[in-house]
Amino acid sequence: ATAPGIVKPLPPELFTVRGTNAETVFSSLRGTGVLTPADRFFVRNHTVTPRIDAAGWELTVWGSGLAGGPVRFSYDELRALPASTVTAFVECAGNGRSFYATQQGQQVGGTAWTLGAIGVARWRGVRLGEVLRRAGVTRGAVDVLPRGLDDEVVSAGVNLGRVRRPLPLAKALDDVLLAYEMNGEPLPPDHGHPVRLIVPGWVGISSVKWLGDIEVSDEPLYSPWNTDMYRLFGPEHPPEGSAPLTRQTLKSAFELDRDAALPARRPVLLTGRSWSGAAPVREVEISTDGGAHWRRARLHDAPRPGSWVRWSAGWVPRTPGPAVLLARATDRAGRTQPDVSVHNTQGYLFDAVVRHPVTVV
Ligand code: MTE
Ligand code: MO
């Protein structure tokens, strides 16, 4: 399988190619640790993966929110600053989008992801706050605008410019990382080499890859990625759309192929993962009969913010024929996955319990 503009191999047991993007096959995570290996981490590119040499690269920080003129950092200078690590997922805002159509019968636009547009990695880099302070950020600054070095995005004949998404200064100074390592290795080209942003818990678009410059502004900033895209539009939302999306929602997925064949009267260990951008997952319930009965799954990881928990539940399928598996998570913010996700035209933030069909044979 190949997707235009992605550098790494995309073997079909690890990835489903969706247009120019690659979705992780969830069953390929079974038996792996909390961290998604880079070879099976999903890829979402608005353009194509650029090849950037770290040696010639630099980051420019500039704008009305700085005390002075632009400040530049080379790759070696960034690596010499105090380092931080964070375990965090990157998840596309549209992850789960296909279920608006297949489960709720609703029209939505965008990449028809199932649940594999997410990966968790251990990111190492320097705090964005550290870099902003060194660049002379002032008290009057309100927004920062990180921008990628990949090509300009042309959508329906309109040039939107380079991928860039405003971030409120408060978040920028909180837990955001300029990451240069993923799972202990330099960032691979597809994931933002040499340096990307990691915005823990927030929609994937915030974690700008192939970072080139950051505008720091004393006025609110706008780009198509926080005005026309990555807001909720449609009859259930304000006419001007919701506020720009920030935190990810709650989801669960089985590490099992859809329509898998499971032998009757043979014990099977169902495994999967649940995650939330709002708070750590504290409970996962499983149903093997389409939602008539529920029981608790065993959690294998301590709940951690911005990451997922692995879980398992034993099952002995009795009756041959079709069955529907469900997994439903609750997080420490008190949210439980609903039966139906609130529709929006671009199909963001799907959070309903996903029906997972299998066949008992
Ligand atoms: N950054 C740049 N420069 N260009 C992009 O196309 N895609 C964004 C984000 N950062 C993108 C980007 C989106 S929509 C997502 S979901 C994540 O990167 C995907 O990160 P990954 O490809 O490392 O999984
Ligand atoms: Mo995304």
From TrEMBL:
Provenance organism: Streptomyces zhihengii
Boundaries of every Oxidoreductase molybdopterin-binding domain copy: 46-225
Keyword Oxidoreductase assigned: yes
Taxonomic superkingdom: Bacteria
Domain Moybdenum cofactor oxidoreductase dimerisation, first and last residues per copy: 265-352
Part of the full-length chain shown: 77 to 437 of 437
Protein's name in the database: Sulfite oxidase
Alphabetical keyword list: Metal-binding, Molybdenum, Oxidoreductase
Signal recorded as keyword: no
Cofactor: Mo-molybdopterin
Biological classification of the source: Bacteria, Bacillati, Actinomycetota, Actinomycetes, Kitasatosporales
